[in-house]
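User: Sequence recovery, please. Input:
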C-alpha cells in the first residue's frame, strides 16, 4: 500500500537491475544535475566521471550492505559492473590493471572531492537547554 519504490532482489552482488534502480533513485532526487551545475567550469576539460555515476555507485554499495568507501565505489564502477551498466552511468573504460585501477581511484576521488569542496553543511541551531 505504500507509494515507495520496490528494492531489487539482492543476488549477492550488484546486478544490472540494481544499477538501474540506483540510477533511477539518483535521477528522481534531482540532485546530480544541481551538483554538476555547481561544479561546472567554463574552461578546462570535461569532468572525467559524472556525479550521477558516483552517487549511483554509493547507492549500489548501500543496497549491497557494503561500506561506502570511495575505493569500493571505484571497484564497483570500473571492475564489477557490466558494460551495459557502465554505459547507463556514463562510465568509460575499465580497470584491468593495478595502474588503471589507481587512475580510476583518482577519477572518483576528484569527482567526490569537488562535490565535498563545494558543499557547505547546513547550520546547526543550538537550542537552549
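Assistant: Recovered sequence (129 residues):
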Amino acid at each position: 500500500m505504500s507509494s515507495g519504490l520496490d528494492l531489487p532482489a539482492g543476488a549477492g552482488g550488484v546486478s544490472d537491475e540494481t544499477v538501474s534502480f540506483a540510477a533511477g533513485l539518483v535521477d528522481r532526487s534531482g540532485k546530480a544535475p544541481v551538483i554538476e551545475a555547481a561544479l561546472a567550469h567554463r574552461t578546462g576539460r570535461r569532468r572525467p566521471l559524472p556525479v550521477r555515476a558516483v552517487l549511483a555507485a554509493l547507492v549500489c554499495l548501500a543496497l549491497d550492505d557494503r561500506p561506502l568507501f570511495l575505493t569500493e565505489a571505484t571497484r564497483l564502477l570500473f571492475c564489477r559492473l557490466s558494460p551495459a551498466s557502465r554505459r547507463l552511468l556514463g562510465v568509460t573504460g575499465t580497470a584491468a590493471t593495478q595502474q588503471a585501477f589507481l587512475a580510476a581511484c583518482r577519477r572518483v576521488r576528484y569527482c567526490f572531492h569537488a562535490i565535498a569542496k563545494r558543499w557547505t553543511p547546513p547550520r546547526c541551531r543550538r537550542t537552549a537547554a
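The helical segments are 16-29, 31-39, 51-63, 70-80, 83-89, 98-118.
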